[in-house]
Amino acid sequence: MKNFKMTMLTATLAIFAALSLKADAAGVGFINYQKVQENYSFAVQAVKEVDSKGLELQQYMVDKEKQYKSLDTPLKKKNFEDMTAREFKAKEEAYIKLKMAKEEQIYNKIQAATKDVMVDQKLDAILDYRVIFVGGLDITDLVIQKLKNGKY
Questions:
Q1: pLDDT per residue as tens digits for the range 55-80
Q2: Which residues, in sequence order, are bridge partners of residue 30?
Q3: Of 100, 108, 113, 132, which sees the most CB atoms within 10 A?
Q4: Distance CA 40, CA 107 (A)
């Protein structure tokens, strides 16, 4: 009988502990990453920089095409194609590297701001808004405001 009372007391305390933990949890937030990115000046500037490099790559190919048309022998054309292909590959790799670096910087800054908002709002998790069907707290504007305040 004594063991039964002890077991019941322990079970009751466990239930109350679980309920009190659940009461402290605020739930789940969600974020529209695209909207945050569009309203974050660092991200907008980075996208412009990457787009500019992409346009430079396109202009490079237009210029090379004009040069190619002016060549008169098949050997010159073949050598020009080989040289241009190597140069283009190097430029393309640099472009891809820049694009990936900028995307990672943007993501890391937005993630840091999102984590701060999660802590401020006492949320358990933040999901993409496309995953939430009903419920949750939209923290998109809070993250945008945090990013505009400058720490990131």
A1: 999 999 999 999 999 999 999 999 99
A2: 127, 138
A3: 113
A4: 11
